[in-house]
Design a protein that fits this description.
The structure holds two protein chains of two kinds. By secondary structure, chain A is an alpha/beta fold. Helix content of chain A is 35%, strand content 22%. Chain B has a two-stranded antiparallel ribbon with strand order 1-2. The chains are: A alpha/beta, B mainly alpha.
């Protein structure tokens, strides 16, 4: 384990022996163990088809039933409606395509959707929306239609839609995909400033290095490596074994010796 | 978070960006007035010719009140054209008693039938156009919601509003990709690529629907939309009365026409 858990506190995320097979028999998760301490930023790396998205959908109970236990800040995911509602508040998932996430006619309504589902109304709800939009620097776009925003802006709004639920852990699926370099850098700045636990699914290795002190590699439904990000990225045979590659010309700085 | 303030999300061809009396009226009263007016028009006996002149005068008055240019309305009323063609054909096609007019032998029944379609269709289309011109699509949904329209319908409409553009953009990209590879359909039998594209688009729409649903569930959606943002800007009694003037005037005309016939 690269990072020791802060003494005594419950981890934000605790995944124990999670298995899942799709109805067609394809085994997507084959006993996944993963613990993320509160306040930690962890990158979940892995090639296409490794089971990353399947794992993400287990974290908030959209998928399940294949065995194993997922707990979020001590609360175990089960099929009970009330538990699921609380789990979905605690786990904020930002999906890869912001057009999947933003479905209401205006930015403000979309950001309000999550907290309104939690039962917030009136001034309290408006305050949540303001707070979330401010955190991603999108306050002035509140009344605009999502499809009038740039892709980078839409991704930031997508982050705001889950921030508005004040999640225990923010889970991002490929946050840097399709972003131009400036939007990519701006998003990194926003994510770094957020005071939440972060799990970032990606195969953008420099982004993982930039944002996450710790990385885990998921391949063929199992966690096959778990170490500080610089250690993983300076292990070419390990990366090659799991179809991960650094961009051309990119050399990660050597990790500081322990 | 009132819908009235956030309603400017979507510009569509049928909406006229203005700030007028009609534009400021809450959507639910406009929808109700439009529906009531159209109902009165439809149930009026077709022989009461002068009643339709009265209805048309009402339309002109409302359009003037909303400061909607006649040309703007007329251009969009062209949607009615297929029905007009059918209405014009009826006097020639229908059977029964005939009259001679400029050397043409026309069916009386067909003349009335054609008139019926033409008059009621045109008035209905114009009334809907005035509603659309003065109400954003966002507000239309809010209005339907406030009129207790089943939520499943308003939700479907909301999704259409949001995803029509996404799907249109997707279709555009697919088309560009297709013609970039030399597809240039000029004749009906060359439409294979287009047809396959429609199929692919349907599949994509379906998959997107699933992903959108997953994203909604992840934010605590349980089958009911939180109605929190529909609470402000609800119509006052005065606004209801103001909007009721039009359908009431139409109803008066209809009653008069039936009694005096």
């Amino acid at each position: 384990m690269g990072v020791e858990l802060a003494g005594g506190t419950t981890p934000s995320l605790d995944v124990r022996g999670v298995r899942y097979a799709y109805p067609d028999g394809h085994v997507a998760l084959d006993g996944v163990d993963l613990t993320v301490a509160r306040g930690e930023r962890v990158a979940l790396l892995g090639p296409n088809g490794a089971g990353k998205t399947t794992l993400v959908l287990h974290l908030n109970g959209v998928l399940g039933g294949g065995g194993g236990v997922v707990s979020v800040a001590g609360l175990t995911v089960d099929r009970d409606r009330r538990t699921l509602a609380e789990i979905r508040r605690r786990v904020g998932i930002v999906f890869q395509d912001p057009d999947d996430q933003l479905f209401l006619p205006t930015v403000g309504e979309d950001v309000a959707f999550g907290p309104a589902n939690l039962g917030l109304r009136g001034a309290e709800l408006a305050a949540r929306v303001d707070e979330a939009l401010a955190a991603v620097g999108m306050t002035e776009h509140r009344d605009r239609a999502p499809h009038h925003l740039s892709f980078g802006q839409r991704r930031r709004v997508a982050v705001a839609t889950v921030l508005a639920m004040r999640p225990e852990i923010l889970v991002l699926d490929e946050p840097s995909s399709n972003l131009d370099p400036a939007s990519r850098r701006e998003l990194a700045g926003i994510l770094r400033a957020l005071p939440v636990t972060l799990l970032m699914v990606t195969h953008d290795l420099p982004y993982a290095l930039e944002l996450c002190e710790r990385s885990v590699i998921l391949d063929a439904g199992r966690i096959v490596a778990d170490a500080p990000t610089p250690h993983l990225l300076t292990d070419p045979p390990l990366l090659a074994r799991h179809r991960l590659e650094l961009p051309y010309g990119f050399t990660p700085p050597l990790p500081a010796p322990h | 978070m009132g819908a009235a303030e956030t309603g400017q999300g979507h510009a569509h061809v049928l909406h006229l960006e203005r700030d007028g009396v009609l534009h400021r009226l809450p959507p639910e009263v406009k929808i109700a007035a439009m529906a009531a007016y159209t109902l009165v028009v439809v149930v009026t006996p077709r022989e009461a010719l002068w009643a339709f002149a009265g209805y048309a005068a009402l339309i002109v008055a409302v359009a003037a009140l909303g400061r909607i240019p006649a040309g703007w309305l007329a251009k969009r009323a062209l949607i009615e054209l297929p029905f007009v063609v059918f209405a014009l054909a009826l006097p020639f096609l229908a059977g029964g008693e005939r009259v001679d007019w400029l050397g043409l032998r026309l069916s009386v029944e067909g003349l009335y039938g054609g008139w019926n379609i033409l008059a009621k269709g045109t008035l209905g289309v114009l009334a809907s156009l005035i509603l659309a011109a003065t109400t954003t699509s966002r507000d239309l949904i809010v209005g339907l919601d406030r009129l207790r329209c089943p939520q499943i319908l308003t939700q479907i409409a909301t999704f259409m509003l949001r995803y029509l553009d996404v799907l249109a953009a997707e279709a555009r990209r697919m088309r560009v990709a297709r013609i970039s590879r030399g597809d240039d359909p000029r004749f009906l039998w060359q439409l294979r690529g287009f047809a396959a594209g429609v199929g692919a688009l349907f599949l994509r729409a379906f998959e997107r629907g699933e992903r959108v649903y997953l994203a909604m569930v992840s934010r605590g959606y349980d089958g009911r939309m939180p109605a929190a943002w529909h609470a402000t800007g609800v119509a006052t009694a005065g606004q209801w009365v103001a909007a009721a003037v039009v359908p009431l005037a139409a109803a008066t005309i209809a009653v008069a026409a039936t009694v005096l016939r």
